Structure formats: C-alpha cells, structure tokens
Amino acid sequence: MLFQVTPVTFNGKEVIILDQTKLPTEEVYLKIDNLEDLWEAIVQLRVRGAPAIGIAAGFGAALGANQIEAVDYTDFSEQFFKVTSYLATSRPTAVNLFWALNRMEKLVKENQSASVSDLKALIEKEAHDILQDDIKICKQLGENGLTLFEDGMTILTHCNAGVLATSEYGTALSPIYLGQERGIHLKVYADETRPLLQGSRLTSWELSKAGIDVTLITDNMAAMVMGQGKIDAVIVGCDRVAANGDVANKIGTYGVAILAKEHNIPFYVSCPTSTIDVETATGAEIPIEERGAEEIICGFGNQTAPSKVKTYNPAFDVTPNHLITAIITEKGVLKGNYQEEIAKLF
C-alpha cells in the first residue's frame, strides 16, 4: 500500500496506538501497559473504527493474559475471562469488539490441557492473527468494492472507514486506495461528521496524506452536492450489520442514505463478515451507544451551547436495508435479499 500508518500494534508488554483524538494536528502514539488505560482509550475514541477496536481488544486480551499470575488452567481461565468481560464493557455498538473477545475466549476453552505459559503464547499469537487477517480482509474488500467504480468517479463518504479504522487499506476507503495503486483515480467528498468530526479530522487527513483528491464538506452540504450532480456513489463502513441487512454506522449515515435514494445515487456499505451479527435479527435490536453532552456543548474546547441545555447524543444510527444498494464483504458483494444472502455467508 502506498500510504502507511499503524493505528494499533502490540509488543508483548504494551499496546501501542495512534491517539486519534490528537489528529489532525499531532501524531501521538500511546504506549499502554494496563487494561484500564486501554479501556479508556477505546471509550474515548483514541482508537476507533470497528475493525481497529476488534484488533485493540485482541491485543488487550493478550496484554491482560501476560499479566496474569497463575499456575493452573482453572485459575488462569477464571482471571482471563474477567479480562475479556471488562474489555467488553468499553463500547456497545461495534460488534467486532465482541467478535475478537469471543475468539480469544474460545481459544482458551479449547486448550484446557495447555500450560499457562503455552496459553499466553497462544493468546498472543491469536491477537496478531486477528491483525493479519484484517489486513487480508481489507484488501479483499477493496478488490470487491473496486468492481463497482470506474476511473474518474467521485465518491462521498461519511465518518472514517479507512486506514485509521482498521489495520491497512480500510473498509470503505479500501477501493480508493487500491484504485490509486492501479492507476484508477477516484475523487472523494468527505462529510465532516459531527459532533466529533471524524470526517474532517481523520478521513481528510489520511486521504490528503495519501495524495487522494479529497474535498471536505460539512454534513448539511451533502444534499446540495448531490443535487448538483457532483456525487456518483456513496460508500461507508459500519459497526454492525443485522441479519436482515440493516446497518448501524456513525450518526448521520441514515440521513446520507435517504439523500442518496432521493438523488438515485448508489449507496454502498463495506464491511468484513466479522461485522455481521447474525444473532441480531434487525437494526431495531442493535444497541446504540449514547455519549456525553460535552461532545455537543463543548466538543473541542469552545462552548457552543448553554451549559445546562438538554442534549441527545447517539453515536450511531441505523440505516434500513431498503436504502442500501449493496453490502461489500470480503466474500463477495451482496445485493437484493440481504436476509437470504447473509444467511448463506454463515
């Protein structure tokens, strides 16, 4: 890949993350050696994006495992499951978090005869495997997504689903990066993505660093640029897909999907199959994280609303499946009856 940045790594003793709350003005890497600080980093969006959260959770499980002092499987597993349960309380919506932790728990349950030292080694290897798997999956998402685009098209995206949200390439931005490598030039309009501005702080930062033609707009400009004929397609990532194809993504995605439908613009969702939650029947059952009032009233140091005003701050919304033109996965592009197609995947 032409543009390289590493959001999450692990050296056996520390989980190292790029603090995304400091971007775009500072590139600060945090070395985290305890579970409490990693939990805080996930909650405070120092690491964010569904796949990256899953990777961080895997490394967090390995970090916690390496710090357990136990002599037998029973004692170790009891303490380890407390580690995974604690990390699972960090954020409720992105299913990759739970997918990664379940993968770690399954590994421990399947190796009851292993020594404690061997268990720790297996857990650390599994965490690195999650990272390597994500790299391969994201590239395949790019391969599959690129079949939907042509050279010279202009794409609108919401929030950040690029390198910063994954391990490499990204989900929604993977076709754009892969296209760049192959001489297929795709222009991007990036929604600002209020209230935390992941589009302006993160998406525009990484695309600019990569040399991609990117134009930043505020969220309430999307309808106008679509009406002016500037947008050929919309592509977003997501944090959870229900069994019927309803999609939870950053707040504002639902509105963008409605606008795309009104303007006859295809609306694509790109995600690994680990983001699909077949245990959740519809989007109505997806837990939606609500965040603090300060993100709206005083998000970046300047107060922009009365201190005591009531606020409602859901971090995500749900886009119903009928507004989605296609769901891009590493196993193929789903179109039509998502209920049936998702069931076939699993």
From TrEMBL:
The record marks C159 as: Transition state stabilizer. It comes from Enterococcus rivorum. Pfam families: IF-2B. GO terms for molecular function: S-methyl-5-thioribose-1-phosphate isomerase activity. Substrate binds at R48, G49, A50, R91, Q198, N249, K250. Catalyzes the interconversion of methylthioribose-1-phosphate (MTR-1-P) into methylthioribulose-1-phosphate (MTRu-1-P). The active site is at D239. InterPro entries: IF-2B-related, IF-M1Pi, IF_2B-like_C, Initiation_fac_2B_a/b/d, M1Pi_N, NagB/RpiA_transferase-like. Pathway: Amino-acid biosynthesis; L-methionine biosynthesis via salvage pathway; L-methionine from S-methyl-5-thio-alpha-D-ribose 1-phosphate: step 1/6. Keywords: Amino-acid biosynthesis, Isomerase, Methionine biosynthesis. One of its GO terms (biological process) is L-methionine salvage from methylthioadenosine. HAMAP family: Salvage_MtnA. Belongs to the EIF-2B alpha/beta/delta subunits family. MtnA subfamily. Its EC number is 5.3.1.23. This is Methylthioribose-1-phosphate isomerase. It catalyses: 5-(methylsulfanyl)-alpha-D-ribose 1-phosphate = 5-(methylsulfanyl)-D-ribulose 1-phosphate.
